[in-house]
Write a structure and sequence with these properties.
230 residues, two-stranded antiparallel ribbon, two-stranded antiparallel sheet, 52% helix, globular
Length: 230
């Protein structure tokens, strides 16, 4: 939810991520430049790790009909706002699913909203986000899922437009890395240390919080591909 990380999905994808390229004499190469790690090892290596992670990686698994996939993905681009909104709603359901109680309600998660319009309509600035559908949430408690959904949808459509298979494990890691970097850009100022790490240094549990967004985006878009209107 608002700046909260999603819970772990069950389908873990095991894959490898490329290591930084080491140059001669103890230098680390970053986008054609060399920097000495002796100057400030922790700061420089940490920052280079993040930059290197953002570089594209090879994803050589092509779709059987790449031209058809690319054409369909291009058409879907005009519906990207609709896809993002739907994915954000699904991500909210993923987040609250483990809180489901025997009576059909959800374990409460009480928040205070600054959404003046929502407060006027409901007569309170207190909201139980776990017992709201996505469409019922105040604006700021939609925004985090919306932004994550935007990265997920964009990554999958980009892969399809290139004729590549978004089911490939390399793509899942690449897109999850993008999700994590975007999340850090929005929330890095307050995030706990174990979530501030570059993606490749995260625990498997933390990586799954990013992967689940990619899985959900891929599933949503595959549904569109299977529909007669696609």
């Amino acid at each position: 939810m608002a700046a909260e990380r999603l819970l772990t999905a069950t389908d873990v994808v095991a894959t490898t991520v490329k290591k930084p390229v080491l140059g001669a004499a103890g230098h680390v190469r970053d986008a054609g430049r060399f920097m000495r790690d002796a100057d400030n090892p922790n700061r420089i290596l940490f920052e280079l790790e993040r930059r290197l992670e953002r570089a594209p990686i090879d994803r050589q698994r092509w779709l059987p009909n790449p031209i058809v996939a690319a054409s369909t993905a291009e058409k879907m681009q005009s519906r990207s706002d609709e896809l993002i909104e739907e994915l954000a709603s699904r991500l909210h359901e993923v987040w609250r699913r483990p809180r489901l109680l025997a009576d059909g309600r959800y374990e409460p998660r009480i928040k205070t909203t600054s959404d003046a319009g929502w407060t006027t309509r409901h007569g309170t600035d207190t909201v139980d986000i776990a017992n709201c559908f996505y469409r019922e949430l105040p604006r700021e408690f939609k925004s985090e899922n919306l932004e994550s959904a935007r990265v997920g949808v964009s990554s999958v459509l980009e892969e399809l437009r290139a004729g590549r298979d978004p089911a490939h494990p390399d793509f899942v890691e690449y897109a999850s890395r993008q999700v994590h970097d975007a999340w850090l850009d929005r929330n890095g100022s307050w995030a706990p240390w174990n979530q501030k790490l570059p993606y490749r240094w995260l625990s498997e549990e933390e990586k799954q919080k990013d992967r689940v967004i990619v899985y959900a985006a891929r599933e949503l878009i595959s549904e569109y591909f299977r529909s007669p209107a696609a």
